[in-house]
Structures are given as structure tokens and as C-alpha cells.
UniProtKB/TrEMBL annotation:
Organism: Linum tenue
Keyword field contains GTP-binding: yes
Domain of life: Eukaryota
Keyword check for Isomerase: no
Name of the featured protein: Uncharacterized protein
One example of a Gene Ontology biological process annotation: small GTPase-mediated signal transduction
Pfam families: Ras (PF00071)
Amino acid sequence: IEVVYNTVNLGFWDTAGQEDYNRLKPLSYRGADVFLLAFSLTSRASYENIHKKWIPELRHYAPNVPIFLVGTKLDQREDKQYLIDHPGAAPITTTQGEELKKMALIQILQQSVLLKYK
């Protein structure tokens, strides 16, 4: 992509938590300038994965690289009908998001594609 007339190489790795990539993941961290971690604001498992796996791992292998968290599905976190229709959904609170922020010294973004929040 081009940012202010400079070409920037942008690479995304989406392993979806597949264990087959565990050996290779640390190799992809070398040379990274930033990490972008996305998690669902309606999924306790997604939150726990960020909290217990990804942040500690990234801090171990790349302690000085900034981490940005993106909380997705913001529109569904407050949607009572969605929560009724999806009994396994467990909305992540603002307090929990702040805990992640403190843990990783990160910026947190919350978004909803449907509501176009940024």
C-alpha cells in the first residue's frame, strides 16, 4: 500500500489458531513493526485466546513491537435479540477490554461493520 507517497509492505497472517502453525509462528514475528489482534466482543473464548495466548506470546517473542486490538461485533454486544438467539454469546465488557489494554500496553479499537463504528 502507499502511505503519504511511501510504499509500505503489509503482510497479514491468519492462522485461525491452528496448532499446525505453532512451530512457524515465531518466525513470522521477526521484523514485524506492529501486531493487529482481532477478537469478538461477543465471545468469551475469543477474549480468553487474546488474553492467555496471543498477548503473552507476542510479548515474549517481540517485546517492543506495538499491539493493536480490534474488538469486532460491537453492534452485537448490546443487541438483546442477538444475545437471546445466541445463548453461548458472552459480551466482553469495557472493563475487560481495559484489562487487555493494560496487560499489553496497547491501543484498543472497537468496530462494527454494520454500524460503521471506528
